[in-house]
Amino acid sequence: MEIVLICLLVFCTIFLFEVLHVRLQKFLLYRRRRGFEQHEPFFRKLISANIRYFNKVDEETRHKWLFRTYLFYRSKKFHYVGVQKSDEMPILISATAAQLTLGLENFSLNYFHDIYVLQHDYHYGYYSLPFMGHVDSSGIYLSWDNFLTGIRSAHDSSNVGLHEMAHALAYVNFITKTDEDKHFKKEFHQFSKVARPVYQEMQRGRRTILGEYAATNYHEFWAVSVEVFFENPIRFRHELPELYDAMTRLLKQDPYAVLLARLAA
Q1: CA distances from 223 to 10, 87, 106, 220, 255 (A)
Q2: What's the per-residue H, E or C state across 24-58?
Q3: Tens digits of per-residue pLDDT, 78-96?
Q4: 172, 179 contact by CB (below 8 A)
Q5: Do the Cβ atoms of 51 and 151 come closer than 8 Å?
Q6: From CA 27, how far away is CA 39, in angstroms rounded?
Q7: Cβ atoms 51, 92 nearer than 8 A
Q8: 112-152 pLDDT tens trace
Q9: How far apart (Å, rounded) are the C-alpha atoms in residues 173 and 185?
Q10: Torsion-angle region of residue 57: left (phi > 0), alpha (psi -120 to 50) or beta?
Q11: Which of 57, 95, 162, 174 is the most buried (most CB within 10 A)?
Q12: 3-state DSSP call for residue 254?
């Protein structure tokens, strides 16, 4: 009888915890939406003025993008190293993370609490060449000059913000496993069936739209693929159609289709 009572007590405790947890999450989401409503006009104006792709997606996607940007922005601590802080910095950086993960369920990259913003290229560890950004266990690092060039330039396929967020997304799914997205993890294996042969051919000298840096290692191949996927989807799809299709399934987004829809409107 005593065992039955203990089991019943444990069951009731677990049940009440689940109920209270769900209600707490709903309450927090409500509070966040109320806070978001106050900030939305400024976020929309800033992102619209700086990220071209934002203006090409439909209004429902823009609203989702803005809200996720706000949630990401609120969940991180931004550090400014040798650069004057401005209001646009954390918002635009958060917007690139939201852009990459728009099609995924888990988007907070919750292992990373700290994001470091530096003014220019910087040196890291024992590497001789300067860095534009990197990701390690201590946080996400970005050089502001290169970040701005990436989101504003329409003449290349480089976007350091998307590049580093791609590294961070892989990091939380495959290294720390703290913010795993079931779809992303499952589909990444399918993506690799297409991607690895392309990567190996590039290591043997094949030239593609992804450029030489993508052949450095498979981690860089993934991050560069993300950059080009959003920055130059027409050429990417034309030159590497199977890889492009694998990216659309992996990220549950299709920038090429977005551009076509925009042109047809």
Answers
A1: 46, 27, 18, 5, 16
A2: HHHHHHHHHHHHHHHHHHHHHHHHHHHCHHHHCCC
A3: 999 999 999 999 999 999 9
A4: yes
A5: yes
A6: 19
A7: yes
A8: 999 999 999 988 877 778 899 999 999 999 999 999 999 98
A9: 7
A10: beta
A11: 95
A12: coil
Residues 6 or more apart whose CB falls under 8 angstroms from that of 107 comprise 68, 71, 72, 97, 98, 101, 181
Contacts of residue 263, defined as CB under 8 A and 6 or more positions apart, other chains included, come to none
Contact indicator for 160, 143 with CB cutoff of 8 Å = yes
Percent of the chain with pLDDT over 70: 88
Instruction: Give first-to-last CA distance, the chain, whole Å.
Output: 71
Q: What sign for the dihedral angle of Cα 220, 226, 227, 232?
A: positive
Q: Strand 77-81 relative to strand 139-143: parallel, antiparallel, unpaired?
A: unpaired
Separation of alpha carbons 179 and 168, rounded Å: 10
Report the alpha-carbon distance of residue 133 to residue 227 in Å, rounded.
14
Residue (of 235, 236, 229) closest to 255 by Cα position: 229
Q: What is the pLDDT of residues 232-262, one digit of tens each?
A: 999 999 999 999 999 999 999 999 999 998 8
Give the max Cα distance, the chain.
75
Q: How far is CA 175 from the centre of its chain?
A: 16
